[in-house]
Fold:
Amino acid sequence: MRDLENKVIYQIYPKSFKDTTGNGYGDINGIIEKLDYIQDLGVDYIWLSPCCKSPQNDNGYDISDYMQIDELFGTNEDYERLIKEAKKRNIKIMMDLVLNHTSSEHIWFKKALQKDSRYYDYYIWRDEPNDINSMFGGSAWAYSEEVGKYYFRLFDKTQPDLNWENENVRKDLYEMINYWIGKGVEGFRLDVIDLIGKEPDKMITGKGPKFYEYLKELNNNTFKDKILTVGECWCSTIDESYKMCNKDGLTQAFHFTHQCLTHTYGDKWNQSKINLYKLCDCINKWENEYTGIEAIVMNNHDLPRLISLWLNDNEYRKESAKLLITLFGLLKGNLYIYQGEEIGMTNAYFNSIDKYRDVETLNKYNELKEKGLSEDSIMEIIKLVSRDNARIPMQWDDTKNAGFSDVAPWIDVNDNYNKINVKKDINSEDSVFNYYKNIIKFRKENYEKIEKKATFNTDGKIISMEKEDFIVYANFTNENIEIPLGNDILFKNYENTKNNLLRPFETIVVKK
Ligand code: TEU
Structure:
């Protein structure tokens, strides 16, 4: 497994990356067009959010045909060409696997509605619902008029959960995965993988009694421990997620412990400030206790931009972006970078619900409306936390639609694209992209220094991370803070450093 460590994975949300057909949606040819840009960053894998056939109710996480690339993004031949072109640049393709549920448009579900169909038991049916709720609000059970029963759906009602107890479901999924491995896919991200062992009658959704058995069977019939796999585990503790990572399971897992630190009483829609004491405890566990390969992740397509949530995305935007990649980029494990963070893209903060597209966001809006909250207070919550903050088009340059598309995109571009775009950033003295590139280069060339034990300290305003060869200092506040610092600088996010002073959102790395 160790040959799958110290990798850098760049996540692309294809729908928002680059449109080459002039339909307002990103596509595979747009990704191929930008491979040199991605290669320049120094990444080893590109993780693509789903491109398979889908009605797009959940932007592709509602798959209606696992074997067919959706024409919105291109053809199967385009996908295979992407794999080949990426390989020429020593970049592997990581496919997003949605094994917990399909779209209700999938042929399996359509056949399940027919009497006595063998596909009926591909899904979970009951005469009456129980009290389990959907992650997207409301009951986790939806009624089918055709069948006269309720089917289980932990996400949208158009995303019926698959019944993993049915051996035929598992066999069909393994056959699909091996098809894509045969086409040259060399990594997989497994969507909500900790939900596949659900037992709704026992009110169990995450990590059901047979979960680890399913994971072992999945691995033994497909990845066989030779392919980089990362499981998304929102419904698991950090220790439970680590238990999934071994030769019979996953390479690594997203546990999101640090992202959840600002969720008040576990509610992500009720955000509080980041607590550096808790953040240090969290990262200390990754660095000094965990012996597996950590999946280091700051941003993804479901999360508001971390510089907007934790730090300052305005007058100290570049400093904030560099602070995060300095602290997280010098941790051991595999580093995940989400499209746009490498140039310091920020939340969109759309003020009108009409600008939002995300099913989770729209459901939350309606839920809060029904509770009687005012429009302004609802929008205050939504514009900070909505997943759409991460799904607005990639900002390539200052031409129309930020160079993403020649026509109005499926979701508005951030109106700061004139100021924040790839072309402007790469040509700037204080480029965030070039800073990311240097951190990635340092990781590649000095991993033995990075994987050494770390000591963390914080006063609630500054975090210091000391390893055998260097010390990272990061000021998470907009204050000037006096602190004794070394002067043999490895990295800095201000043009010059001040003796024994950290300015707002300043980070420096000093050699020991
Ligand atoms: O996400 C699972 C999930 O629960 C998060 O999307 C949810 O929004 C959480 O509160 C984090 O913000 C995965 C995919 O990443 C997501 O895009 C899909 O919508 C979901 O599963 C269903 O496939």
Summary: The longest helix spans residues 167-182.
